[in-house]
Amino acid sequence: MAASLWRAVMGTGAASAEADSAGGGVEFWRFPERTGWLNKQGEYIKTWRRRWFVLKQGRLFWFKDSIVTSASVPRGVIPVASCLTVKGAEDVLNRPFAFELSTPRETMYFIADTEKEKEDWINSIGRSIVQHSRSVTDAEVVDYDSRPGDK
């Protein structure tokens, strides 16, 4: 799933520094909106792995290492515009500082190191969801007061 998300975000070509330098991708190594360590539950084998996360331009990337350069290849990416919710999940996982990120297809779980980091990630991802989700345009707003035939 992560590979398919990566292809969807970056285009059909390989995830490479060349694609990024050609303007087809996000320069995740430059001026990220948020970075930090989180524990992420594996997609298939449900073990917890510590990963370095980078939030930039509506995408949440993760890496094995905190040194991220133009040559770095993300282990995965989530386009936040496809996310429905981001919220605390301590009660679901029975672990402190846990939160979840839900898409129409799946729910991913993360664990921060502190309550403040958890809240900061939830707020940053939530802001990014709002900024990058498709908003309603004026043409799509239905005026229920104006009905055909009313004058």
UniProtKB/TrEMBL annotation:
* Superkingdom of the organism of origin: Eukaryota
**UniProt-listed SUPFAM superfamilies:** PH domain-like
Q: Which Pfam families match?
A: PH (PF00169)
| Residues annotated as domain PH | 31-130
Family matches, as InterPro entries: PH-like_dom_sf (IPR011993), PH_domain (IPR001849), PI-Interact_SigTrans_Reg (IPR051707)
Q: Locate the transmembrane regions by residue number.
A: none
From the Swiss-Prot or TrEMBL record, give the protein name.
Answer: PH domain-containing protein
Tell me what organism the protein belongs to.
Digitaria exilis
